[in-house]
């Protein structure tokens, strides 16, 4: 065994001793209810979900093999090899992000299936080459409208959006310094909540490697502490980054206080609202800002990210994850567009019913 292999083996043994290793245990997605639902004709192309439907259960019901179930509850390791397994436990998942069950909605599945037959499954190529399609543009416009923004830039994943945006912010200092190591006054100060998502943390770490940012971590949702850090910072270019809804703790960032502090210190406010706030909070699913009836007309980014047209085109050439990575396939884009349509129909029907009740 080489010295490198020996060090890796020692590290793995130490992690195992600390119980920090976890096996990946496959689950089997339940599809019976979805198949039954799809046998029924869908009368409206944009069918709403104003009540529980047969397909909703399939979004939370999964099967797990009995051997793996026993290993899971006893915290034992699993190989993940279950070929030939016949006995399964039925479980309900309450840890997924498909809060509205759109992933199993038959209207959306029908639209995605049609797109797969027409355009194939895989992504074409990166957006920079020839991967940017009319579906991308339509989805960006729809999301920007949902968030009440002027424009939107799609990234392959929310993780990629956060990492790319943090690196792009870090590149501002090096650009102003003509690609030399920036002086202190040329750097960007990034203030990050202590419990921000790991994608933001990884992005900040990458930005630090450019030596063009200074990082300040403020205590979770502590606006007094953040205000003190901002007041003592002499750097002119500042950005505050936060999740809107913190998934592990279940609390919201203090948006109203952040907006008040931003007026005093004039920083760029970056809000990650895509995973837990969009479609779930606010008027017509517009996210956390709309839920709190807040309006910030400038210097505000929400990741997808969404921002102004000029800033979008500037970001395009700095967010490498958005332009160099293999882009999202047409099948996924059409499914997302269909989701927007279903949501619009649902909210329209809901708002109409509220108006009729108030008469």
Q: Average pLDDT value?
A: 77
Task: State the CATH superfamily name of the largest domain.
Answer: Type I PLP-dependent aspartate aminotransferase-like (Major domain)
What is the count of distinct domains?
2
Top CATH class of the largest domain = Alpha Beta
Give the SSE string: HEHHEHEHHHEHEHEHEHEHEEHHH
Query: Which CATH architecture of the largest domain?
Result: 3-Layer(aba) Sandwich
Class by SSE composition: alpha/beta
What composes the largest sheet? 5 strands, parallel
Q: What characteristic shape results from the CA principal axes?
A: globular
**Range of helix content:** 40-55%
**Number of strand elements:** 10
CATH topology of the largest domain: Aspartate Aminotransferase, domain 2
Strand order of the largest sheet: 6-5-7-8-9
Protein name: 8-amino-7-oxononanoate synthase-like
Family: Belongs to the class-II pyridoxal-phosphate-dependent aminotransferase family. BioF subfamily.
Domain Aminotransferase class I/classII large: 91-297
Keywords: Pyridoxal phosphate, Transferase
Question: Can you tell me about this structure?
Answer:
It holds the Pfam family Aminotran_1_2. The protein folds into two domains: about 100 residues, no CATH class; about 210 residues, Type I PLP-dependent aspartate aminotransferase-like (Major domain) (Aspartate Aminotransferase, domain 2), CATH 3.40.640.10. It contains 15 helices and ten strands. Helix 8 runs parallel beside helix 9 and helix 10 runs parallel beside helix 11. The termini are far apart.
